[in-house]
Amino acid sequence: MMSSLAFDEVPPPADKVAEPAPLPDGREVRPIPRISIQAFCETQPFADTLAAAAADRRMSRAHVKVHMGGLAAATEFYAAAPTPNLILVESSLPRERLVVELERLAAVCDAGTKVVVVGVTNDVELYRDLHRRGVSEYLVGPVGVLNIIATVADLYSNPKSEPLGRTVAFVGGKGGVGSSTLSHSVAFALSKSLGGDVVLADLDLAFGTAGLDFNQDPAQGIAEAIHSPDRLDETFLDRLLSRCSEHLSLLAAPATLDRTFDFGEAAIEPVIDIAQANVPMVVLDLPHIWSGWMKRTLTGADEIVLTVEPDLANLRNAKNLLDLLKQARQNDAAPHLVINRVGVPKRPEIKVEEFVKALGVEPLAVIPFDAALFGTAANNGQVVAEVDGKSAAAAAFDKIARAVSGRSDVRRVRRQGLGSVLARLRGRKTA
Q1: Contact status, residue 46 vs residue 90, Cβ threshold 8 Å
Q2: Could you tell me the residue range of the domain that residue 261 belongs to?
Q3: How many CA atoms lie within 13 A of 304 on its CB side?
Q4: Does residue 23 register a pLDDT over 80?
Q5: Same domain, residue pair 261 and 192
Q6: For the domain that residue 16 is a member of, what is the CATH number?
Q7: How many domains does the structure of the chain reveal?
Q8: pLDDT tens by residue, 128-176
Q9: β-pairing, 303-308 with 281-285?
Q10: 344-366 b/e with 16+ CB inside 10 Å = b?
């Protein structure tokens, strides 16, 4: 029996049928951990699908290699080579022959290797038989890119752990368009509507304003987390959080010029990973720069909000960003567009209708210029909703918060780690 050999033995669910999983919403497919994946394909379309999956942002940490030749090539290859964490094989063999070839493959696999088979037979009994023999998953082809990613993610997720929180990145089409103000107000709105904890990370390390907008001046913040990768864990990150409201905490930027902030493109990832694993929502306030870490953080977010003003420079920059993100995030929804500060007196503006037509993207919100409201909020160390919760701007922030949350009916999510410390910051015990 194959279950006594190298494949993982996974008992089949009693009611599962042998058919492809439904294509999931791209925003809900979770990232793949750092694993090695090798695939053996019989057809070029399946190889192309795997190549597209390997290029997806969720697979950026996995090492993927695609071979041709199907099951026979896999068995020959691993007779002289160690097996990876996961083997994907495509096979058009009939049931009896498929089982025989999988037995041969199992004989050369290392212990702990998972195997996913993409076949042509839609047969629940075959599905159950392969599970009993240790095959981790059986899919009926053809399968799509997100189906492949979701299947791998399910194999390597811990069923006892909470799902990963969502990351929302805010970026401006030009400096000074109000992207930071927008991100702070939306984070505040999320903390009110979610009923769960939200972390706002101010990544404009030299000039960040999140501390000012929430009247906070913490001694430490996100810079310490980035510059201390050897110390970074839940406990250390907990100590760097500053409470802004009942459910909102801040990883503040130092906003000083005593040192520069040049680091590798993956330096931000560990901070986001820990926060994302412990709270439902992580809001990323990105600076108006273009670097390796900025691009990687932006393209890796679950949701993106692009803030612009209606002028020519914003139009050009927004078009460039949208084109880049469309190419880099082919399996994700388009970024949300917010047109800010519309109607500045005596300022020549591109009409909203013309601006939108040129971009080909409908705006999620159009926020009118209101110098008194935004100026009062900034000078008081408050967000707009705290100054005037019934304003058009506050309503727009609530709308954006609902759109990026990914949930129509959000209930409170309780987590350990950061959540427990957030509770202590609020002066009460976690339920």
Answers
A1: yes
A2: 166-425
A3: 26
A4: no
A5: yes
A6: 3.40.50.2300
A7: 2
A8: 888 888 888 999 988 999 999 999 988 887 665 566 788 999 999 999 9
A9: unpaired
A10: eeeeebbeeeebbeebebebbbb
